[in-house]
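Continuing the series of single-chain predictions for the mutant panel. This is the parent chain; the variants come on the following pages.
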Amino acid sequence: MTQMPSFIMGFREGLEAFLLIAITLKYITSIDQGHLKNKVIQGGVAGLIISVVLGLLLSLFAEYLGGVSSLTKLWESVASLVALLLVSFFIVWMIRHGTHMTQYIKDQVGQSVSANALFWISLIIIAREGTEIAIFSFAGKYPFEVVSMGILSALILSILIFYSLVKINLSLLFKITLAYLILQAGFLLGYSIHEGFSAMKGYGMIMSDNYIFNKAFNVSNTVLSHKNGSLGIPFHVLFGWYSKPEWIQFIVQYLFTFSMFGYWVWHNKKIASS
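Parent structure:
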């Protein structure tokens, strides 16, 4: 009975990482910066290696570091925060250059896209999800072969999505990519807060009855569950949906998300009126 949760876990975490990588790859290809694909791929490979090594080491020392669950939550919180900073940098770059993207490409100013930033975004995204999977797998909580099938399924789906974007024009692809990145950045912030407080609870730094853990809502026992719900999983991957957020997580996540969308709209209006 542990096979299906293991498959879902591998699929969910894998799709969350691969989809972000796939859309980023498609976007930089569309703006004639295909040479940067190697940086994204190199970052992904480096992230994979790091996640396996780090996951093995952390699982071995988990009992000395507060247990597998608390350790994983601490890692997820820190890694999500780092990923948030890198993705936010890329979002701001896209917003500032998106209005005149066609001319921007013709002038080849697109080379200002930081190759190093793309490398680190890819590395952190893969390492963030991969390390969590590795820790639980090495600790024996999830059968590795079943998790691997979930990850492989997520990879295949991401590749199909990547090639399905071939005929989408640059303007639409830009909007899809930017909107998706903003949603994911908001999720990373909310998730970092959630996992951080959960880790602090696990280490005894915060009591479980603290008001911080008061839920805004809880639909985790329905199809909207972000862990195993038929609607919750795709919503989680695509929109950063979380089925039982704390109030602070919910407010900060969507305040950040709406602020970034607001900045995008404001910047476009500013350019249009100038």
